[in-house]
């Protein structure tokens, strides 16, 4: 068995160490989560102040807005934890009782599926909010906008189905 030349070994070590260039991106996602928390809090305070004067439909729209923001935050956490663990370094928090059960078990394929499922859910909630606004008189019905929202949502759904199908097919093939 032959030894690798020193330059090749150093190159490979440098290449492997380059994964740490992703760390600032994950730190940016933590900042984004903070931003989303502020927006969520602003929305919650805004809607809480109108609780006694809003209609049932307005309350449902407010709740859907908060759910939408929380789904986006969940998505951020999934990408943050899974991405960091899959591509940079394992999080050394095994003794923590708070460690989510899925951490360390979500591979890139699972991350893709969670990502597309969250995007479909967020898109579906947004579409539902638009549907609930129809006929409320706040703004005239923009059928072209509505058509595009439905097309975009169905594109996300179809993408999710195709990704799941590709993963299923890949799991059925022999590994080379």
From TrEMBL:
Membrane topology summary: Multi-pass membrane protein
UniProt keywords, alphabetically: Cell membrane, Membrane, Transmembrane, Transmembrane helix
Keyword Iron-sulfur: no
Subcellular location: Cell membrane
Keyword Transmembrane helix: yes
Entries under PANTHER family matching the protein: UPF0114 PROTEIN YQHA
Protein's name in the database: UPF0114 protein GCM10011452_19200
Organism annotation: Gemmobacter lanyuensis
């Amino acid at each position: 068995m032959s030894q690798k030349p020193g330059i090749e070994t150093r190159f490979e070590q440098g290449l492997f160490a380059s994964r740490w260039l992703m760390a600032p991106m994950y730190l940016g996602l933590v900042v984004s989560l903070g931003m989303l928390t502020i927006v969520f809090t602003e929305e919650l305070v805004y809607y809480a102040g109108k609780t006694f004067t809003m209609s049932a439909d307005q309350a449902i729209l407010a709740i859907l807005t908060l759910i939408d923001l929380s789904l986006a935050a969940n998505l951020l956490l999934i990408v943050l934890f899974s991405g960091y663990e899959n591509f940079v370094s394992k999080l050394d928090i095994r003794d923590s009782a708070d460690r989510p059960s899925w951490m360390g078990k979500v591979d890139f394929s699972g991350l893709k599926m969670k990502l597309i499922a969250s995007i479909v859910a967020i898109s579906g909630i947004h579409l539902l909010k638009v549907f609930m606004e129809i006929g409320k008189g706040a703004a005239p019905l923009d059928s072209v906008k509505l058509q595009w929202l439905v097309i975009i949502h169905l594109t996300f759904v179809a993408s999710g189905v195709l990704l799941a199908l590709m993963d299923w097919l890949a799991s059925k093939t022999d590994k080379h």
